[in-house]
Amino acid sequence: MSHTAEIPLAPGSESPLELKPLKAADPASVYLRRAKRLEVLAKDSPLADYLELCRRLVAVQAKLAAKEDFGLPPAWDKSEGEPLTDLGPSADSYWQSLLQQLLSELLPQVDESVARVLRLLMQQAPEQLSAWGQALRQGNLSTVPARFSLFLWAAMGLYWSHWAPAVIQRMDQRRVEQQSLCPVCGSHPVASVIVDEPRAGLRYLHCSLCESEWHYIRAHCTCCGHDKEMNLWSLDDYQANVRIESCEACHGYTKMMFLEKAPLMDVAADDLATLMLDSQLNEKGYGATTVNPLLLAHETEDSE
Ligand SMILES: [Zn+2]
Ligand SMILES: [Zn+2]
């Protein structure tokens, strides 16, 4: 490994040279694993129908991620900030062509009420799709019709996750600082994962758009950076594989998934499956600082 990390390391770290501040994903295998996990979680879930729709959607993502032509590499910004934030019209035309393919693949697999939404989305003008896509990427979720958000994000995720690994290879990782938003594309994380490689208990935030992961020191708020008065919550015992870290300074919270204890977990799928934890934290006055791509339809439902 040629690059060392300038981001703060966890206290007591032994071998800082091995820490990767930024990890690229293999999108096809991320989607495959997510689809499998959704299938398992759908059994006996009160959200079974919704999880099954998500599973079919993610399975189509897996197929397209492995096969599709993604065109020429986007003209990404090499100067400063997150390189895949502002990509311009050519990226729009590529992700929108992925959207059309994704919708045609999904159409025969869904019931009539969802099929109506898909057909309506297929007929939207490119300018409209570009505007909605940009609004979603900038976090203005409520300005996009909730029924379309899930599918728009899925198509953009395919495009951004395809190019993120190539961009990461060319980024100077020494300039990657600990930050709340994805250093590659500027999107919110879904949740954080705790891994034991290259050393025990490292935390990475997982991007909701490009599936990259970036290191973030534990026991520091992933939203405001505060490192005192952090609380840990879980549904059952202290050994729980999914825990929430909440912050008394900004009243935000982030989920942590302990992948070493449950290697089949997937950030987006397991976040959906543990919404009980969210409602308990919401009742106590805390708000999520994360975005789940599979939950967009639900999150914006009220604002339509
Ligand atoms: Zn990203
Ligand atoms: Zn905070």
TrEMBL record:
SUPFAM superfamilies named in the record: FdhE-like (SSF144020)
FdhE central domain: residues covered: 181-218
Gene3D superfamilies: FdhE-like domain (3.90.1670.10)
Sequence ranges assigned to domain FdhE C-terminal in this UniProt record: 220-295
CDD domains the UniProt entry points to: FdhE (cd16341)
Protein keywords: Cytoplasm
Protein name in UniProt: Protein FdhE homolog
Occurrences of domain FdhE N-terminal (ranges): 20-173
Function per UniProt: Necessary for formate dehydrogenase activity.
Protein family (similarity comment): Belongs to the FdhE family.
Gene name of this polypeptide: fdhE_2
Cross-referenced InterPro entries: FdhE-like_sf, FdhE_C, FdhE_central, FdhE_N, Formate_DH_accessory
GO cellular component: cytosol
Domain of life according to the entry: Bacteria
Record keyword Cytoplasm present: yes
Organism: Shewanella algae
Molecular function terms, GO-annotated: ferric iron binding
HAMAP family assigned to the protein according to its UniProt record, in alphabetical order: FdeH
Compartment annotation: Cytoplasm
Lineage: Bacteria, Pseudomonadati, Pseudomonadota, Gammaproteobacteria, Alteromonadales
GO BP annotations, alphabetical order: protein maturation
Keyword Cytoplasm: yes
